[in-house]
Specification:
Order of helices and strands: EEEEEEEEEEEEEEEEE
Radius of gyration: 16 Å
Distance between the termini: 17 Å
Strand content: over 45%
CATH architecture of the largest domain: Sandwich
Largest sheet: 7 strands, antiparallel
CATH superfamily of the largest domain: Jelly Rolls
CATH topology of the largest domain: Jelly Rolls
Helix content: under 10%
Length: 172
C-alpha cells in the first residue's frame, strides 16, 4: 500500500498555546488518545512550546537558521536538517530565534517505541514492514512516483527513494 498526500490533504490548526499555527499532515488516534502525529510549523520568535503530556517529540528544522530548545536541564540545538528528540511534557522554550524557521514534527505516544527519523539525500532503498512516512523537502521520487516539495508518502512496502526527504519509521 502506498498513500500519497499533498498539502491539499493537510489541515491547519492553532497551536495548543495559541501562538502559532500547525499544519497537520497525519494523525492517528486510538479511543481519543494520540498515537502519532506528523505536522509542520513555523517558529518566528522566542517562546514557550505547547505541553503534550505522555507524548515524545522529534523536531527537524527544514528551512531557516534554526534555534535553541531550552528547558529544565535541557539545551538542544535545533539546526537545519538535524532531528532532535525531547519529551512533550517537559516545559521547553525556543530561544535564539534570529529568523523564521519551519520545522517538521513527529509526535508519538510514550507507550509506543520511538520512531526512527532521518534526513535522506540522494538515492536510498528502505525496507518495508513498518509504517513509513516520507516527507519531500524538494521535488523527489518514491518508487518512481514524483513528489513535489511538502508531499507525504505513507507505505509499509519496501521503497526506492531519490531526492531529499525526511523519513519516519513509525512502530505500533
Amino acid at each position: 500500500m502506498i498513500r500519497h498526500l499533498t498539502p491539499a490533504d493537510y489541515r491547519k490548526m492553532p497551536w495548543a498555546n495559541g501562538k502559532g499555527v500547525t499544519v497537520e499532515m497525519l494523525k492517528l488516534e486510538d479511543n481519543g488518545h494520540l498515537l502519532w502525529r506528523l505536522s509542520r510549523a513555523s517558529v518566528v520568535e522566542n517562546g514557550d512550546f505547547s505541553i503534550f503530556p505522555g507524548i515524545e517529540r522529534n523536531l527537524t528544522v527544514i528551512t531557516g537558521p534554526g534555534f535553541d530548545l531550552i528547558g529544565d536541564g535541557l539545551h538542544l540545538n535545533a539546526k537545519p536538517l538535524a532531528p532532535v528528540a525531547f519529551a512533550g511534557d517537559t516545559p521547553i522554550r525556543a530561544e535564539a530565534v534570529s529568523a523564521a524557521s519551519d520545522d517538521f514534527n513527529v509526535m508519538t505516544a510514550r507507550c509506543l517505541p520511538r520512531p526512527d527519523v532521518a534526513v535522506i539525500t540522494g538515492a536510498v532503498q528502505l525496507r518495508g514492514g513498518d509504517m513509513l512516512a516520507i516527507f519531500a523537502l524538494v521535488p523527489s521520487k518514491v518508487n518512481g512516483i514524483a513528489l513535489n516539495c511538502d508531499d507525504l508518502i505513507l507505505t509499509d512496502e519496501p521503497v526506492t527513494l531519490s531526492g531529499q526527504m525526511i523519513t519516519v519509521r513509525l512502530y505500533r
